[in-house]
Each structure stands twice: as C-alpha cells, then as structure tokens.
Amino acid sequence: MSRAKPTPPAKPPRYITPEGFRRVAEEHTRIWSELRPRVVAEVEAAAALGDRSENAEYIYGKKKLRELDRRLRELAERMDSLTVIEPRPHPSGRAYFGAWVTVEGEDGVERSYRLVGPDEFDAAAGLISVEAPLGRALLGKRDGDVVVVLRPAGPLELTVLDVRWTRPEQ
Fold it and tell me: 19 and 74 share a domain?
C-alpha cells in the first residue's frame, strides 16, 4: 500500500474573453502603479510622526496596504489560471462562448446577453456567465429556439431572437 498522497483532480480551464482579461489586467496595473505607491507614501509619512502603536494613520495605512497586496495576489493568481478565448462565429449559427444572444421574454421585452466566463460576468452590463442557469440554457441555441430557465422565482421561458458575435446596437 502506497503512502503517497493522491493527486488532486485537475481544475477545469477557466475561460475569459480578451476584453475581460484586459479589465482584470488593468485593475492589477492600476493597483500596482497608482494605489499602492500612494498608500506606501501615506504609511511612510505616518511612520515619520513617531509612536506607531497609537498612530491611527499608520495602523490604518498598514491595513490598507495588506488589503491591496492581497488583491494583487488574487488578481495575479487569477490571470495565471485563465485561458483567453477569442470568440469566433460558429458555422451552425449556435450560441457559444463569447456570443451575444438577444432574447425575448414572456413579457415581450427584448434583452441582449453576452456569454462569458465566470470571472467577468456583470449582469447589469449584459455579461452572463456560461456557468449561470441562464448562460447554460442559452449555450448551443440558435435563432428561433425557445429555452426554459429554471430559477428560484419559477421557470422563465425565453425565445432566442438573434445570435451574433458583435455587440448588438442598443
């Protein structure tokens, strides 16, 4: 019997669009080149005032610096684990990762969603994760398909009006 530890299962790849990766990289750059140097200067100025044990500016600044460093590590690890996928139209006209899908709800209202990875979803901007119930329901669908999304508030029936690979006009 072997005493070797079992290897953990491989994590599935995490996909992201080039635009989503650019946003993550821009946040990392902004923290590293703008926010962190400013906080370091504030901490240095507070430290120069003397007794650090009762110096609120120093204590708060160090805490803020730790939070920024934690966020930098988190963003760096995320960028290392992401696979950037350039969305390309599928010959079948089906909706896949990166596609913009326009749907009509039971209420007659049209909405457009982009199918993206879980690291870039933003429901307010119409970016829906392919791992979310709506994203899973729309994957592989084409114009005219009807999908039913199971949600806590009850099932929602949507009709796919358009699948495209460029942002629809608002």
Answer: yes
* Number of domains present in the structure of the chain: 2
The Cα 50–Cα 69 span in angstroms is: 25
Sign of the Cα torsion 122, 123, 128, 129 reads positive
Q: In sequence order, which residues have a C-beta less than 8 Å from that of residue 121 and are 6 or more positions away?
A: 127, 128, 129, 132
Q: Given pLDDT bands bounded at 50, 70 and 90, which one contains residue 10?
A: low
Domain identity same for 20 and 80: yes
**pTM tops 0.85, yes or no:** no
Above 60 in pLDDT, residue 1? no
90 CB-near residues (< 8 Å, 6+ apart): 96, 99
* Residue 123 buriedness (CB in 10 A; 0-12 / 13-18 / 19+): exposed
Query: In which domain, by residue range, is 40 found?
Result: 14-84
Other CB atoms within 10 A of residue 107 CB: 6
Q: Is residue 170 scored above 70 in pLDDT?
A: no
Structural domain ending residue among the three candidates 57, 84, 111: 84
Nearest to 101 by CA among 136, 57, 69: 136
